[in-house]
Amino acid sequence: xxxxxxxxxxxxxxxxxxxxxxxxxxxxxxxxxxxxxxxxxxxxxxxxxxxxxxxxxxxxxxxxxxxxxxxxxxxxxxxxxxxxxxxxxxxxxxxxxxxxxxxxxxxxxxxxxxxxxxxxxxxxxxxxxxxxxxxxxxxxxxxxxxxxxxxxxxxxxxxxxxxxxxxxxxxxxxxxxxxxxxxxxxxxxxxxxxxxxxxxxxxxxxxxxxxxxxxxxxxxxxxxxxxxxxxxxxxxxxxxxxxxxxxxxxxxxxxxxxxxxxxxxxxxxxxxxxxxxxxxxxxxxxxxxxxxxxxxxxxxxxxxxxxxxxxxxxxxxxxxxxxxxxxxxxxxxxxxxxxxxxxxxxxxxxxxxxxxxxxxxxxxxxxxxxxxxxxxxxxxxxxxxxxxxxxxxxxxxxxxxxxxxxxxxxxxxxxxxxxxxxxxxxxxxxxxxxxxxxxxxxxxxxxxxx
Length: 450
Fold this sequence. Notes:
- By secondary structure, this protein is mainly alpha-helical.
- The protein has three domains: 10-69, no CATH class; 89-349, Fic-like fold (Orthogonal Bundle), CATH 1.10.3290.10; 365-449, Winged helix-like DNA-binding domain superfamily/Winged helix DNA-binding domain (Arc Repressor Mutant, subunit A, Orthogonal Bundle), CATH 1.10.10.
- The chain has 20 helices and seven strands.
- It has helices spanning 10-15, 19-28, 41-44, 55-68, 89-101, 110-113, 115-136, 143-152, 159-176, 184-195, 236-248, 257-271, 278-292, 303-309, 311-323, 329-363, 376-387, 395-402, 406-419, 440-449, and strands at 71-76, 82-85, 218-219, 226-228, 392-394, 424-428, 431-435.
- The strands form three sheets. It has a three-stranded antiparallel beta sheet. It has a two-stranded antiparallel ribbon with strand order 1-2. A two-stranded antiparallel sheet has the order 3-4.
- The protein is elongated, with a radius of gyration of 26 Å.
């Protein structure tokens, strides 16, 4: 990853503007370009500047307009400068969209507002986030193997699998503490959960780095370039406590909850309070802040899955902030794009599921045995089985994927095989496996005729 070029100091350039050019600046140049983009110098310097402007003058005018509208935060970087951000029209539009789509009621969300299915969808999203977040930090286990490990509740076989199961437990921890105020104790416990049995020194799990923990850097894996060196460990606990105050209190002037969640994500990663696992902890903290503030749809998405598709952009958003006077706007814009994309993907997924559910409901209309109809979980199994002939289901996987008791899962599958004859039951070791038959649709029609 290439570190963005540090922008030139805008003040000397701006001071040399002619009076005429300075006056015209207010009409022509604002914090964003003509396309509404909040550009870093590293990109702006390659684009065509406005008429009669050099690249340096264009940057100086842009930067000056940004400085006038900065919101300053009570966080400082290593050189004592405060972190800032700009609330651009693009950001405001994204926040409005998220208020409607991540916290409001969505028709397509019927599958996850149904009490019987909500837990199942939460579990699936926890699994996706656990796998993707761990893979971002170097875990190499495939998604299929990791998913089966979690659903079958088998012990991790290596460090990669341990990272994934830890991340899964951490996401469960977040849901448990979503109503509580943030404390350094919660952050430490979250980190301990995320890094258990994965560190060379297990005593460092759930412990802030100390003065003797030197040479802590963020390094690009491909080029071995140091991308970030965090502030000294001295005063770290006080800075983390300050972060907790920011998370728990309403700021004046008001800062939107989504912006706050993104800032928490950035600042924990910037402080790098642990010897390892900082990225996972920062992303987990973002989830906590979003869910605590009523953005309930975030429970069903994987931010890390989106980031994993373009990890360089994720890293670049951090670096652009650091190289341009702690301007968090770059990171905020990036995270809002990721968040919106994840929500839109979820909406599309739910719409597909809704079609599948309605198709299954239509196909199974009138099907009952001894007065018994299929429940919502069983209809989901039938809907899946129709598309996947010869697919194998087992009680443990079914139980864990839907968050239900073993006996409930066993009863669901037994009824589908013995009462309705929609699955074939076979002996598999000490338990049973249930196979979706190729002639399932014909079996359903036969049940209707009785």
